[in-house]
Every structure is written in C-alpha cells, then in structure tokens.
Amino acid sequence: MILGEIEGRIMSGEWPPGFRLPFEVDLAEQYGVSRMTVNKVMTQLVKSGLIERHRKAGTFVTQPRAQSAVLEIHDIEAEVRSLGLPYRFECLKHERRTSGAPDQAAMDIADGTEVMDLVCVHFAGPRPFCVEERLINAAAVPDALHADFTGTPPGQWLLRQVPWSTAEHRIQAVSASGDLAKRLAIPKGAACLVVERQTWNALGPITRVRLTYPGDTHALIARFTPASQ
Fold first, then answer.
1. What are phi and psi of 121, to 5 degrees?
2. Within a domain: residue 102?
3. Is residue 229 domain-resident?
4. pLDDT tens by residue, 39-90
5. Sign, CA torsion 219/225/227/229
6. pLDDT for residue 152
7. Quick one: 48 and 72 in the same domain?
8. Same domain? 55 vs 121
9. Distance between CA 156 and CA 63 in Å, rounded?
10. Does position 229 have pLDDT exceeding 50, yes or no?
11. Which of 44, 61, 78 is at the close of a domain?
12. What does the H/E/C string look like for the chain?
C-alpha cells in the first residue's frame, strides 16, 4: 500500500523531481505502520531509482538524468526544460578585465586582450544543474563588454548573437573541490563531469567555457558512423 501510493505520487508528478519526502517517522505515523516498514519501502524506491537519500538533508525525488550530445552546443535552459523542470540561473561573477598569461595559454589570444570573466550556476528546479566558468574574447565579441548577463545566460546570449565556425570539446571527470561542491550542493570530493569547450569564427577565438555537472545527473552521448574503409 505505502509503496504503491508513493510510487503513484512520484510517477503522476504530484511529487516532482527535487521534492523532499516527509521524514520516515512522519510517514510511519501517517500510514500507521512501523518505521522499519517505511525504511524498507524507501530502500526499494532507492533501488528503483525513484528517490535518493542525502545524509542530513533528507530524501528527495530523483532528478531525471540529462543527456547531451558530445558534438553539439546546447542552450542549458533548453536542456533543463526538456527534463520538465523549471530553470533559473545566478551570475556569481561578471568581470571585465585584461587577459594575462593563463588566458593567453587557454584561449590563444594576445596578452593584454580584454576579456569578460563570468561564473554562473544553472538550476534545474531547486537543485544546481551545472556550474559555468566562461571567458569571452572581447576582441572578437565587443558587444559582450556591455551585455547584461544577469538577465540572459552567457551561453544563450552568445548562441543568439555570435556565429561560430569551429568548436573543440574536452571531457573529463574530476572530484569536486570545496568551492565547486558548495556551488553544486554536493559533497566535497564527489565525482563531477566536466565539459570544456572553445569556439572560433573568422575573427578568432570567441569563448572558452568549462561546464561542470554533478556526475550522477548528467551523461554525454555521441552518434557516429564507421570511417570509410
């Protein structure tokens, strides 16, 4: 009875992804059963992939697992909304500055070129979806110096404003550092998926971005055909 009712609430959307379930003691009282019975039900729901437990934080309905095509450039808002979840973002850093040696090495731009240095957190429902760390080459995209990235995400703005001709992706797994773990609301040292991307057009490098996702909520897919023999 308890299992079927909770499953029904989750599958119907009454309890959407990210919804925090009542505590086990409260569910036991509500259904008139022992806490051990409720614990067994919760364990089964975890195994089914419908809920997930977070120490001290509670038990939540599982977020759908997002998938991105490796060789495509997606609008993060569209990715989130494709999961049926509300989207929002926060711009934590929005700095216009002169590039230095690390920027030159990362983006292949001249030392002293002006860049926009941005850090954003994107949310899917109540949970962080990914952290975006981005440099925009102002020599190739001068309008970026005056863009309001508090209202429009940087990636979305670039896709609408600046055509690109070449892109390079680099994918790796990392452990979340203290700051990154805090921004993604995950334990320090948790596995993360990182996609680093750089784009170019005829004017040179446009942007370099590092997107970091919690490792258990995102997957990358690629479709390809056999090379000619």
1. -115, 125
2. yes
3. no
4. 999 988 888 778 888 877 889 988 765 555 445 677 899 888 888 889 999 9
5. positive
6. 93
7. no
8. no
9. 23
10. no
11. 61
12. CHHHHHHHHHHHCCCCCCCECCCHHHHHHHHCCCHHHHHHHHHHHHHCCCEEEECCCEEEECCCCEEEECCCCCCHHHHHHHCCCCEEEEEEEEEEEECCHHHHHHHCCCCCCEEEEEEEEEEECCEEEEEEEEEEECCCCHHHHHCCCCCCCHHHHHHHHCCCCEEEEEEEEEECCHHHHHHHCCCCCCEEEEEEEEEEECCEEEEEEEEEEECCCEEEECCCCCCCC
Total count of domains within the chain? 2
Is pLDDT at 5 greater than 60 in this prediction? yes
Domain boundaries, position 11: 2-61
Mean pLDDT of 163-176: 87
In a domain, 18, yes or no: yes
| pLDDT at residue 211 in the model | 94
Domain boundary (23, 40, 61) is at 61
